[in-house]
TrEMBL record:
PROSITE patterns: PROKAR_LIPOPROTEIN (PS51257)
Domain SusD-like N-terminal residues, every copy: 117-236
UniProt record similarity statement: Belongs to the SusD family.
CDD domains per the UniProt record, alphabetical: SusD
Domain annotation RagB/SusD: ranges: 376-541
Transferase as UniProt keyword: no
Main subcellular location: membrane
Localization, UniProt: Cell outer membrane
Keywords per UniProt: Cell outer membrane, Membrane, Signal
Organism of derivation: Mesonia mobilis
TM ranges: none
Name listed for the protein in its UniProt record: Outer membrane protein
Length: 541
């Protein structure tokens, strides 16, 4: 069994009933304000560490009983409401990277880009992030009672990072939201995207030296490199979010993260010539991949059970003629596939001479299942064989063994939220966008390091003359697909809503079509608007 910091504590957290959540961002009634109590939780460092685990667990789990029962958020299926599952729904299903055949209310509207202000998924994500902010505020407030403790100071810095990360998601998805930093019963005011951006930046700059040094924390907890990496992401999006180019800062903090103890995983445990797939296996906390993970959500098939997370990614991507046992699970959910727009970004090494369909890829990141699958999608709903399936995430370890859940329901694979490869790509993009302090040759070397891993040799290497923004947006797709990044990337490149880049069923049209620019943001939940009259809805909704 995987026994790291977070997983050790997951199984205690639901029984501990940690701390009060008197208010989320909008006094949302779907979150029970009396689910937690501070009593006896902050008695000492050990208990405070257990409370800290809840902050991490809130990104992985969904309630107080495991995969289902006593959910933290109501109004949506509990497994569906898990953070990274909703991040996938909002940042991948809305793009060229993924489609899903299920007809859950509001779900088909995501790929069709026709969601409204009452959409279950946009609403639940807002509430999930609001909950994380509330939990962090409560922890920070209560941990102040434990004075003269460097260890608790580090805990508080981690809580501040997690709160900043929640706000990073909020301004990415919703823009203007209330900034709440203390437990309060007051109805909050709405803050601008610029104000939230400034808060995140200030927090991360303040805590960088309060967090432990690179690699000093046990696996599962963030250190100061996470603050640098999140600053890299924040500054890369600054021109879109606040109208101010911060690419020089993106280079600075990308370089700090790159020069840390983290490293690109090149460990090929199974000897197949590519170390890329090791990043998404059941033992990615020990097979070398963990050295690339700057911030990850940890899962264990026995002690952290959820129908979201990588359990969702592995099950939902299996169907048709695929063998679920080969992925370490008991069955596929026949949901997720990809579009030809993603497939066509990869280099084919061999093609079938009869029909021209690719059967092998030169780029090892092209983890597609094609047997019985159609490249082009004619029907999304209930037709798993339309669109290639993706085998990127699996519940099998590097030696071919399935995860620890003997029933094959729940998955062990950890999910990277920020890994060093992304920071390499951030650096290269910031250089191409004329940030100072970096150089094109270094950027090219970083990209080639990723491509050498992907190709297993130097055949995929590029020259500095090949490296431009068109290359970068496609390389980000090849390296980071299904990791919750794509919508944000497409918006930054001006491709999400416009007609400059189309993919199958974009805007609900089979060949793809442009949609209104207001779709670059999701709506604030309609019920929150009714509750909090201080809020102004995003334009278009």
């Amino acid at each position: 069994m995987k026994m790291n910091f977070i997983n050790k504590l997951f199984f205690i957290v639901p029984a501990m009933v940690l701390f009060s959540c008197h208010n989320d961002l909008d006094v949302d009634p779907t979150i029970d304000p009396d689910s937690f109590t501070e009593e006896n939780v902050f008695a000492n460092e050990t208990e405070a560490k257990s409370a800290l685990a809840k902050l991490y667990a809130s990104l992985a789990l969904t309630g107080q009983e495991g995969p289902a029962g006593q959910p933290d958020i109501s109004g949506i299926d509990e497994g569906t409401s898990q953070y990274s599952r909703m991040l996938f729904s909002l940042n991948e299903l809305t793009t060229d990277n993924a489609v899903v055949g299920w007809g859950d209310p509001g779900l088909p509207d995501l790929h069709a880009m026709s969601w409204g202000a009452s959409n279950d998924f946009t609403t639940a994500m807002y509430n999930r992030l609001a909950q994380e902010v509330s939990f962090c505020n409560s922890f920070i407030d209560n941990a102040q009672s434990l004075t003269n403790s460097d260890e608790v100071d580090a805990f508080v810095a981690e809580a501040r990072f997690l709160r900043a990360f929640a706000y990073y998601n909020l301004i990415d998805l919703y823009a203007d939201v209330p900034l709440v930093t203390q437990v309060s019963t007051n109805v909050p005011e709405q803050n601008s995207r610029e104000e939230i951006f400034g808060f995140i930046e200030t927090e991360l700059l303040e805590i960088q030296d309060l967090l432990k040094e690179s690699g000093a924390n046990e696996y599962g907890r963030v250190d100061r490199v996470a603050a640098w990496a999140l600053l890299s992401k924040l500054y890369l999006n600054a021109e879109v979010w606040i109208g101010e180019a911060r690419y020089t800062d993106a280079i600075t903090y990308s370089q700090l993260a790159i020069n840390s103890t983290y490293s690109i995983n090149v460990n090929d445990e199974n000897g197949d010539g590519s170390a890329y797939d090791e990043l998404f296996k059941a033992d990615n906390d020990t097979n070398g991949a963990q050295n690339e993970f700057i911030f990850a959500i940890n899962f264990d098939g026995n002690s952290s059970r959820t129908y979201g997370g990588t359990t969702f990614l592995v099950h939902a991507s299996r169907g048709g003629s695929m063998d679920p046992a080969a992925a370490g699970i008991n069955g596929g959910w026949e949901g997720l596939r990809t579009t030809s727009a993603l497939v066509n970004k990869f280099n084919y090494a061999v093609t079938n001479s009869e029909d021209g369909d690719p059967i092998e890829w030169a780029d090892g990141r092209a983890m597609f299942y094609t047997d019985g699958q159609n490249l082009e999608i004619n029907t999304i709903a209930n037709t798993f064989t339309d669109g290639y399936a993706i085998t990127k995430f699996t519940n099998v370890d590097s030696e071919g063994n399935p995860g620890v859940d003997e029933g094959g329901d729940f998955v062990d694979t950890d999910l990277p939220l920020i890994r060093l490869a992304e920071v390499y790509l951030n650096y290269a993009e910031a250089v191409l966008r004329n940030g100072s302090g970096g150089d094109l040759q270094t950027a090219t070397a970083y990209i080639n390091e990723l491509r050498q891993r992907a190709f297993g040799n130097n055949n995929g290497n590029i020259t500095s003359g090949d490296l431009d923004l068109d290359f970068i947006i496609d390389e980000r797709a090849r390296e980071l697909y299904w990791e919750g990044q794509r919508r944000t990337d497409l918006i930054r490149f001006g491709d999400f809503t416009t007609g400059s880049y189309l993919w199958p069923f974009k805007g609900g049209a089979q060949g793809g079509t442009a949609v209104s620019e207001f779709r670059n943001l999701f709506p604030l939940p309609s019920n929150n608007i009714l509750i909090n009259t201080n809020l102004t809805q995003n334009p278009g909704y």
